[in-house]
Design goal:
The protein is mainly beta and about 850 residues long. The chain folds into two domains: about 120 residues, Immunoglobulins (Immunoglobulin-like); about 625 residues, Maltoporin, Chain A (Beta Barrel). The strands form seven sheets. The protein has a 22-stranded antiparallel beta barrel. Strands 8-11-12-9-10 form a five-stranded mixed beta sheet. The protein has a four-stranded antiparallel beta sheet with strand order 3-2-5-6, with no helix packed on it.
Length: about 850
């Protein structure tokens, strides 16, 4: 299909080039930043007097662009994340126009600027929606970001309901990836909910993060950064044992360097690195037979990431780059903390190498083809820190051993090819996405030592487990993860004040193998006034879910009993299970329901945006979403109730997990947002969300309480938080007296009270007390205030644009040192039932030093 598409692209480009009239005026130019370095990847738009788009292009590696249009008067707009939009008048009457040189200014605030006098076109562009979250490289230096992990910091702006089963999608320079792959200093901008109804993406806008990295340039630029934290400056964890605080320290070194490669013409590089060394303590707050146990356990981590990109201008119309990325990460005592004792921890190492190729080819002033290919090679080793059986005492502690021994290897190819074509009022785009062509190898020895589950401390003391589960047999499996998508969309400038964007996408995966996964998308934007201050938007679209890697592995391992996962319930034998019971026990299996389909989500929204002052926008947006055929799991061989829940219908199997697409989800939300610069005081984003979500499934790994009544689970969704308030930005940005701020306030999410026993004989321990519904309780409210002060000193004040800079910042997280409960004991048999067992981190301090040139 990809070959056919590329052939069609080339044929279309060639045919259209033949038909291009000779009367068009050719315009060329170059775009630089304030220091004189070239700016690649900038969007160039030529608009007529009505605000209609006549031609567009993208600047190449050397900052150059080429467009063509009939003679006339136009507005030329240059748009690039991190820079202020440049707008100039262009008179095309002479057949020969001198090359243009345009210098962009650094943007002071993240906002979409109208690029034509009438306020049309760009104001109604589908990617100009103002309920998006945009953070530029400058913002990342101004706001408090813990450990420089902006992905975690911005995740509060995501909608959990829009995140797929496989997790949040990370798009880096338009390509899906497991991780960003470059240091924070090499990131140009980050966006959430950008163009939410674009058929180019399989996931809704509020469920994915789009990252644009800095381009390579032909002059040397770079930065060195150092982040430091030490436990002596932090507040004490509320559940840490009394006495002196244990030593904790975090050191992060990261930076980037870009410039020309020796004397090679039109060739440049971008190098970035990150080294993170973290010596932290996991806090155990459990109850054993000896009584309450509060303990600090050392949990150090190390992470090294390197990337090297080489870019070359192959011709005036073509630029390409190759890139290599490497990561080596290790975690000691992974999983320890809260109820999990040190003995049940694991050690994890992860090594990944990525090879990237990207090509931009301008076939004509109105045609652009972009091809990206990514090869990922990953290996993850998980080893138990302690051998023996795993012991789980409901609501009290987890000990013995992690029983998580695995080796995972992944070989994955991601391929994206997109063709853009501008003609009159139409900006068309179509392409192919192959996000996963993966071969995975799993060597699984988890639970080979067995796991005992006890309903209470009393049962543990009496050596009376409720269940024993173990695995035996084949441990190595090879399986494949295949996903593909094609799309077509058209941004139609119907009038200078009205933009209509229809689109259609088709997706396929080898998990459900559903064939009817067509996703129509549609959005419209209408300018309501002449000065471009108010825009009304509406949209609707269909989105299909992705299961991710884990369900594929489960089906491969357990669809046939080659790896025997055995389950014994109500065993009288402890600590050594009776051999004859293992012999008699039938294997557990995992299979897909015969009628399984890919879950479908239908989203619609309407929003109103209004410009406030000169540089801010207020918006109100209503979202509605319904999910059909949502994933869930059911044990279709659960013990029969009238047998006392002891006899399974088919004795040839033990637990028979059937993955179904029979759940449903309904959600509504109202979002109020203010973003941009408020006078000369504040620059940033303020968001309030009211939301409510109801479902009868908690996801693909969710089992109902009663396997024979799987639909009787409707309740508030696991992620349902009615009220959320988020704010990030800077007061006095760029001034000696400045203050970066992040605020997160949210209602607690629901949780379910369970009995700690297994009356249904399934081994799930998810039974609830009589009359108690699922998710009937809510965790306490979460509140956090983060602050940052920083300043940059120019080493050459007389040459501000080219002066090297030395900067520092001091950040405080959870400044008020509020106790934010993380876990409330929900098991009735727990000695701490109803009490808070764990809390989010207390106040922490972070120092950052940086040098840029």
């Amino acid at each position: 299909m990809l070959v056919i598409l590329l052939a069609a692209v080339c044929f279309t480009a060639h045919a259209t080039n033949i038909a291009t009239p000779d009367s068009q005026v050719q315009v060329s130019g170059a775009v630089d930043d304030p220091s004189g370095a070239t700016v690649s990847g900038a969007k160039v738009e030529l608009l007529d007097s009505n605000g209609s788009l006549v031609a567009s292009a993208t600047t190449l590696l050397n900052g150059q662009f080429h467009i063509a249009a009939p003679p006339g008067d136009y507005q030329l707009a240059i748009i690039r994340d991190g820079f202020a939009t440049s707008v100039s008048t262009l008179h095309l009457h002479d057949p020969v126009i001198a090359p243009l040189l345009i210098k962009l200014k650094i943007a002071e605030v993240s906002q979409q600027v109208n690029v034509d006098a009438s306020g049309g076109s760009s104001a109604t562009d589908p990617s100009a929606n103002q309920d998006t979250t945009t953070v530029t490289a400058g913002d990342l230096k101004s706001i408090p970001v813990f450990d420089n992990d902006y992905i975690a910091a911005l995740s509060t702006m995501l909608d959990a309901g829009d995140i797929s089963t496989g997790g949040t999608t990370i798009l880096v320079d338009g390509v899906e990836k497991n991780r960003v792959g470059v240091s924070n200093s090499a990131v140009q901008s980050v966006k959430i909910n950008n163009d939410p109804y674009s058929a180019e993406f399989y996931q809704p806008g509020r469920g994915q993060i789009q990252i644009i990295t800095k381009p390579t340039v032909d002059a040397f630029h770079g930065s060195l950064n150092f982040d430091f934290r030490d436990g002596i400056f932090d507040a004490r964890n509320a559940f840490a044992p009394p006495g002196p605080k244990p030593p904790e320290q975090r050191r992060i070194y990261f930076g980037d360097l870009t410039g020309p490669i020796f004397h090679l013409k039109d060739t440049s590089f971008l190098f970035s690195f990150t080294r993170a060394e973290e010596d932290l303590q996991a806090v155990v707050n459990a109850v054993t037979l000896s009584g309450p146990l509060q303990q600090n356990v050392s949990a150090p981590t190390r992470n090294t990431e390197l990337s090297m990109r080489a870019s070359r201008q192959l011709s005036p119309a073509q630029t390409a780059y190759v890139e290599y990325q490497y990561q080596n990460q290790s975690n000691i005592n992974e999983g320890v903390g809260e109820l999990v004792l040190e003995a049940a921890g694991s050690n994890v190492t992860n090594i990944e190498s990525d090879f990237v190729f990207h090509d931009d080819y301008t076939l004509s002033p109105t045609r652009l083809n972009q091809l990206s290919a990514l090869v990922e090679i990953n290996r993850q080793d998980i080893t138990n820190t302690n051998q023996g059986s795993k012991i789980v005492v409901q609501g009290a502690f987890v000990g013995g051993s992690a029983q998580a021994q695995q080796v995972k290897s992944e070989y994955n190819l991601r391929l994206t090819d997109t063709f853009s074509y501008t003609r009159g009022r139409h900006q068309m785009k179509f392409g192919v996405n192959l996000p996963h062509i993966g071969r995975r190898v799993l060597e699984d020895q988890s639970l080979f030592g067995g796991e005992y589950v006890f309903p209470s401390l009393a049962a543990y003391q009496a050596n009376r487990p409720s269940t024993y589960e173990s695995q035996q047999g084949q441990s190595r499996y090879i399986y494949h993860d295949l996903e593909a998508g094609v799309f077509v969309l058209d941004v139609i400038q119907a009038t200078p004040t009205l933009t209509i964007t229809p689109g259609l996408r088709y997706d396929w995966n080898n998990f459900t193998r559903s064939l009817a996964n067509f996703s129509p998308r549609f959005s419209v934007a209408k300018l309501l006034d002449k000065d471009g201050a108010t825009v009304l938007r509406a949209g609707a679209g269909v989105y299909y879910d992705r299961a991710g890697n884990t369900p594929l592995a489960d089906v491969k391992r357990y669809s046939q009993p080659s790896l025997f996962d055995t389950l014994v319930t109500d065993s009288p034998c402890f600590p050594v299970i009776c051999p004859d019971q293992i012999t008699l026990q039938s294997p557990n299996v995992v299979r897909l329901a015969p009628d399984i389909r890919t879950p479908l989500r239908f989203n619609l929204s309407v929003s109103l945006e209004h410009r406030v002052g000169k540089a801010a926008t207020a918006s109100v947006a209503y979202y509605k979403a319904n999910s059909f055929n949502a994933y869930r799991s059911v044990d279709v061989n659960a013990p029969i109730p009238f047998s006392g829940s002891t006899v399974r219908p088919d004795p040839a199997f033990g637990r028979y997990r059937q993955i179904e697409s029979a759940g449903n989800v309904r959600s509504n939300s109202l979002t109020l947002m203010l973003r941009g610069r408020i006078g000369s005081v504040f620059s940033g984003t303020v968001q309030y969300v009211y939301a409510h979500a109801i479902d009868n499934t908690g996801g693909i790994g969710f089992y109902p309480q009663n396997q024979y009544l799987p639909d009787n689970e409707e309740a508030s969704s696991n992620y349902d938080a009615r009220h959320r308030f988020n704010m990030f930005g800077t007061f006095g940005q760029g001034k000696p007296l400045n203050l970066g701020v992040q605020v997160h306030i949210s209602n607690g999410t629901p949780y379910t009270i369970t009995t700690g026993t297994d009356p249904y004989g399934t081994g799930f321990f998810n039974a609830r007390p009589a009359g108690v519904a699922r998710n009937s309780k809510n965790n306490p409210m979460y509140q956090e205030l983060d602050l940052r002060y920083g300043y940059d000193f120019k080493m050459r004040p007389k040459k501000l644009d080219k002066s090297p800079t030395i900067g520092f910042s001091l950040s405080a997280f959870n400044v008020l040192n509020r106790l934010n409960p993380a876990i409330v004991s929900s098991v009735v048999t727990s000695p701490t039932f109803g009490q808070v067992n764990a809390a989010y981190p207390p106040r922490r301090m972070q120092l950052e030093l940086r040098y840029t040139f």
